[in-house]
Amino acid sequence: MLESLKMNTFYTRSQEAGLHIMHIALNKQATSQIILLVGKSMTQKSLYRTLVRVQDLTAEKADQLIWLRARVHTSRAKGKQCFLVLRQQQFNVQALVAVGDRASKQMVKFAANITKESIVDVEAAVRKVEQKIESCSQQDVELHIERVSIFVISQAEARLPLQLEDAVRPDGDGEEEGRATVNQDTKLDNRVIDLRTTTSQAIFRLQSGVCQLFRDTLTQKGFVEIQTPKIISAASEGGANVFTVSYFKTSAYLAQSPQLYKQMCICADFDKVFCVGPVFRAEDSNTHRHLTEFVGLDIEMAFNYHYHEVIDSITDTMVQIFKGLRDNFQTEIQTVNKQFPSEPFKFLEPTLRLEYTEAVAMLHEAGVEMGDEDDLSTPNEKLLGRLVKEKYDTDFYVLDKYPLAVRPFYTMPDPNNPKYSNSYDMFMRGEEILSGAQRIHDAQLLTDRATHHQIDLEKIKAYIDSFRYGAPPHGGGGIGLERVCMLYLGLHNVRQTSMFPRDPKRLTP
Amino acid sequence: MLESLKMNTFYTRSQEAGLHIMHIALNKQATSQIILLVGKSMTQKSLYRTLVRVQDLTAEKADQLIWLRARVHTSRAKGKQCFLVLRQQQFNVQALVAVGDRASKQMVKFAANITKESIVDVEAAVRKVEQKIESCSQQDVELHIERVSIFVISQAEARLPLQLEDAVRPDGDGEEEGRATVNQDTKLDNRVIDLRTTTSQAIFRLQSGVCQLFRDTLTQKGFVEIQTPKIISAASEGGANVFTVSYFKTSAYLAQSPQLYKQMCICADFDKVFCVGPVFRAEDSNTHRHLTEFVGLDIEMAFNYHYHEVIDSITDTMVQIFKGLRDNFQTEIQTVNKQFPSEPFKFLEPTLRLEYTEAVAMLHEAGVEMGDEDDLSTPNEKLLGRLVKEKYDTDFYVLDKYPLAVRPFYTMPDPNNPKYSNSYDMFMRGEEILSGAQRIHDAQLLTDRATHHQIDLEKIKAYIDSFRYGAPPHGGGGIGLERVCMLYLGLHNVRQTSMFPRDPKRLTP
């Protein structure tokens, strides 16, 4: 079935491993070696080679003979030599095949013909170099492939849909020399290759870190992780922007947030809960910050005396995330900055909390015309972010006490001023990353507010009933994971921080 | 709006907290006290009371005066006394209000009238008891509510849809005395109350632990957490059992597993990945172990020489989970055992691995008639589990090398025997909890196998194309979270370990 691969290769399968091995047959030495690999002895694990990691190739390993599995990042033949750059994730190392005692001219030629992005096993000697190799992550050594030892584990097609070096080039860089950059749709259409770039590897390792920091911080605070259903029977917030699912002989919806279920868990005595999971919004918004499916980091907790206890828990969690990223993900941050330069993310301790009326006053002062109880437009949010940064030197703050009219029906009104509410948004670099509030925990008040919002009470019966059998005062919020990563790194499109983004126009890959 | 609550109560709102406080007006002392609570001074956090946790009420706290917020679990008036049991999650303590110097007859009467499941704040003295209180988790002390200090924070409706003590009663227990148990549908219909039982609290705290142990173990092994899309453009495995979503002007599907995306991440050099998220199956199966939406704990990893490296990683992860549960969740396990007795879960190190042919031979020996390459029926799986337990004394094992014909198209065939495959299931107490395999990483072989399975190649183009640009040998598996929890605890219905289960007949709450 692999007949199509023509390059003096022969194809074998290891007898035990089910591992497909294509071998570039260079000479008899190589052939005898491959037999070792595919024979029955394969089951004896002691015969397995130890593969080193590229990141471990330092001067300390000089003059050792090692085995390595890596991708061919680039290859450049130059007379009797072939320079390969071998890559593992964000790390790479230079390797040299040169005509001499140990390698034939033919071998150099074959090495040069291995397609980029193929995965190879090589046996090589680690050699110190006199001049640092600036173009590689491993600058102090290179590999000398002296024995006839290159095996192609998986061969890439010759024509790549995009070049990795183009995909990581900063916008405008090298334009004069006619060097290409790759547009976003091409990247996303070929995401499997685009995700191999140092930038993508760094972004998604950092994203994994955000989730871990979020959970670890909350677990330490005594929160319990919950799993909430995504298929729900009724569109909770009036039915707008919700995806419909055909469910056997009836219809169902995809949850726009886990909020109602988080609240039920509070009514069910779990006291403090969090969940991490997909959130679905059937919004036909084609902007840099909207996705139809994103990952929600959700929090809900009972509080004792004041909903600011909830704000404090959430802001402290965010601060722990920011600190964890700053302290443990510097390499990733700097890798992303190379392609997308941005200022380091700034935050205060304790977190700045402004009231909505203060924010409106700041905007008025800056010449913005808006009513006291109008919602903030996206440009005004951005402007406010700049004003706050100038005045307080922080990229993260809380805006508290939103006008009641612009918030969902389940938001607790401010007891002091019925035009406002006990609700808040949180912002990073002037963009909203969290929306939250104290929730109404009294079934009758909830019924009144839902009626005021003209919501069909029959559809939210199960939700309202949850509060009939004793419910503690509580609040929470939902954080958009992709937005947090985008804004922390100073990126400009949420599709960069979603592995396989979904928007009104994109459903693949 | 709370006019309906008639019991000599008055209703106030705290000025700052938005916290609804209903106060049982007993006498003037109480009235003066509530004013403190609702006045402007509320913003001064120093005035907030410190609330103790029920679990901290031990003999060491004897004779201290404390404040507590808890639910009224039961209340029993007896002449001039009222005994309350106050509950926080799985912990509870007895509290006594007695007519005397500090409490009036009226107060005792009011305390006795507080509806079960209401949330109250009480001020009380902690008193050592001479005889242990067997019916409470806090056996060495009781609370004496001596001052006029009971505030109802949230009042439950008088008629509960189910009684917590009925919901935790073991089947058959107390039947002779006419004591009720609660059937599963009633529990699930009123899940918010059912989740308050000690059994439910224990189950879902343990479930939270499973997720944490799964992630922590894999993170330590160098795995990266990924987030995969749930809305997908094509039903990957032939289109059966898939939910359809209307997606703007087109149709989409809900992912039946993250497997294709996990694999793409391997092709994208993430090397070892895991994810935790919802999985959707439009199967009209009304059994004890099927849900239409469940939580998948998914693993995928590149390996070096043999797919057993993958099996070893997964079984070690499971063993770490079993050990973590055994060592850190004994209270939860014993709590669940009180209602649902079961044998402790047994496992071996290293994990037992049987080949499919061995299993078939064991079944043949036990009198089962089946072909060598037939799939295992559910009863045969259960029987095999019993045979394995008898012979090897383990509740957890791996069944390796399934017949190729019964596995999905992307399963790597066994290179030694084309009738078998490099695939495996894992079992707990005789039920499948994981299905996995080495995956085909060669685009041509994948195309051949898809064609053999009569799958429309056009629909899986993005998937197959992922392997065209170099892909390492890899494998993985998907674990059902609810099944792991059910089987570890020896429960008999997966709905018990899903907070808000979804099946063909249940979409609410």
TrEMBL record, chains A, B:
Q: Does the keyword Coiled coil apply?
A: no
Q: Does the keyword Lyase apply?
A: no
Q: Alphabetically list the UniProt keywords.
A: Acetylation, Aminoacyl-tRNA synthetase, ATP-binding, Cytoplasm, Ligase, Nucleotide-binding, Phosphoprotein, Protein biosynthesis
Q: Which family does it belong to?
A: Belongs to the class-II aminoacyl-tRNA synthetase family. Type 2 subfamily.
Subunit record text: Homodimer. Part of a multisubunit complex that groups tRNA ligases for Arg (RARS1), Asp (DARS1), Gln (QARS1), Ile (IARS1), Leu (LARS1), Lys (KARS1), Met (MARS1) the bifunctional ligase for Glu and Pro (EPRS1) and the auxiliary subunits AIMP1/p43, AIMP2/p38 and EEF1E1/p18.
Classify the source by domain of life.
Eukaryota
- Any idea where this protein resides? Cytoplasm
Q: Which Gene3D superfamilies match?
A: Bira Bifunctional Protein, Domain 2, Nucleic acid-binding proteins
Enzyme Commission no? 6.1.1.12
PANTHER family per record: ASPARTATE--TRNA LIGASE, CYTOPLASMIC, ASPARTYL-TRNA SYNTHETASE
GO biological process per UniProt: aspartyl-tRNA aminoacylation
Primary localization: cytoplasm
User: One GO CC annotation, please?
Assistant: aminoacyl-tRNA synthetase multienzyme complex
Start and end residues of each Aminoacyl-transfer RNA synthetases class-II family profile domain: 204-509
Q: What does this protein do?
A: Catalyzes the specific attachment of an amino acid to its cognate tRNA in a 2 step reaction: the amino acid (AA) is first activated by ATP to form AA-AMP and then transferred to the acceptor end of the tRNA.
Q: What is this protein called?
A: Aspartate--tRNA ligase, cytoplasmic
The record's listing under SUPFAM superfamilies reads: Class II aaRS and biotin synthetases, Nucleic acid-binding proteins
**Reactions catalysed according to its record:** tRNA(Asp) + L-aspartate + ATP = L-aspartyl-tRNA(Asp) + AMP + diphosphate
GO MF terms listed in the record are: aspartate-tRNA ligase activity; ATP binding; RNA binding
